[in-house]
Design brief:
By secondary structure, the chain is of the alpha/beta class. It contains twelve helices and twelve strands. The structure holds S-adenosyl-L-homocysteine. S-adenosyl-L-homocysteine binds next to helix 4 and strand 10.
């Protein structure tokens, strides 16, 4: 049975970090249901005629309930369509992807899951923290701290979690950072343990604040960090001084307006991204045929009488060869 629904990991932010399989699947489906953490450029990988529906929650708006997403998936499948459920990072890591898979399995709808690069893995790489290190960390705990403190203390065994692993990664919970850090300290984590918060990991707008379990909350408040962000606690944070590479690049974070005509921006956009800059594509000109084609046609007709033809742009080359082939000529 062919899968009808694809639960796809979009990766952590940088659109280049989607897997090849997820990119291919994205290009095959009829409907794409995507979350807030998905980079907008990834939608261009879908078919132009595919329906693209935003189903994420955004700050200040009423969150679209998971029921609504489930309903949309089932409706599309009933209508005979294939669906990509595109989620930030990995679909099964604190992403409710597993609930969607359960739904599909219970209805007997064939599906496929394509893992994605999880945000903590990207945060470690791009902020230069690693998550493990032979000398300082051989264990990691991934902890989600979003909801109410009551629910967290009910579902997390803080007395053990606080000291069980050398590295702790806290998802969400930025607004409650101070209380979370106090909880760690109350349960035996040393207040001087290094801690970092990484916002928008892997993007040119990435920001990282480094402190200790005791100081990080105030530092993050002063810096005004927002979501999405991860808190990483442990000695691995010290590595940043040595293995930082991304946010030290000369063009890091620079917003660069790319004004080239549509269809001619790919190379430059990629190169800017490689330099950690943030390209903003805004074509301000369009290359079109001359309103009066006669002079150009005349010049082409007597092309063989010129000693030199100087072409000053890729557009000129395209126009010249298009006209040559249109009139049954070639490069000779
Ligand atoms: N499935 C996702 C996690 C979803 S939960 C994954 O695999 O990463 C959403 C939380 O993930 C956010 O609140 C934040 O804590 C974290 N997150 C996701 N993308 C992030 C990014 N680019 N930078 C920092 N944190 C991120």
């Amino acid at each position: 049975m062919q899968p009808r629904v694809f639960l796809l990991g979009a990766g952590p932010g940088d659109p280049g970090l989607i897997t090849r399989r997820a990119a291919r699947r994205l290009g095959e489906v009829d409907v794409v249901l995507y979350d807030a953490l998905v980079h907008p450029d990834l939608l261009a990988l879908a078919r132009p005629d595919a329906e693209k529906v935003f189903v994420g929650k955004r700050a200040g708006r009423v969150s679209q309930r998971q029921d609504d997403i489930h309903r949309r998936i089932l409706e599309a499948v009933d209508a005979g369509k294939t669906v990509a459920r595109l989620k930030g990072g990995d679909p099964y890591l604190f992403g409710r992807g597993s609930e969607e898979a359960e739904l599909l399995a219970s209805r007997g709808i064939p599906f496929e899951v394509v893992p994605g690069v999880p945000s903590p893995i990207a945060a470690a790489a791009y902020a230069g923290l690693a998550l493990t290190h032979r000398e300082s960390s051989s264990s990691i705990a991934y902890v989600t701290a979003t909801e109410s403190p009551e629910k967290d203390s009910a579902s997390h065994d803080w007395p053990r979690l606080a000291t069980a692993t050398q590295t702790i990664v806290l998802f969400m919970g930025l607004r409650r950072l101070e209380a979370l850090m106090e909880t760690l300290i109350a349960h035996g984590r040393d207040a001087s343990t290094p801690a970092a918060v990484v916002e928008r990991a892997s993007l040119p707008s990435q920001r990282t604040v480094v402190g200790t379990v005791g100081t990080i909350a105030a530092l993050v408040r002063d810096a005004g960090l927002g979501t999405p962000a991860l808190t990483i606690v442990g000695d691995v944070v010290r590595l940043r001084d040595k293995v930082r590479w991304f946010d030290t690049r000369p063009l890091f974070g620079a917003r660069v307006l790319v004004m080239r005509p549509e269809g001619q921006t790919d190379g430059i956009v990629e190169r800017l991204r490689d330099e950690a800059a943030d390209p903003i594509v805004m074509p301000i000109l369009r290359i079109a045929a001359p309103t009066d084609p006669a002079p150009f046609a005349r010049a082409i007709e007597k092309l063989s009488t010129y000693h030199w033809v100087v072409l000053t742009s890729a557009n000129g080359v395209d126009a010249l060869f298009a006209e040559l082939s249109r009139t049954g000529r070639d490069a000779r």
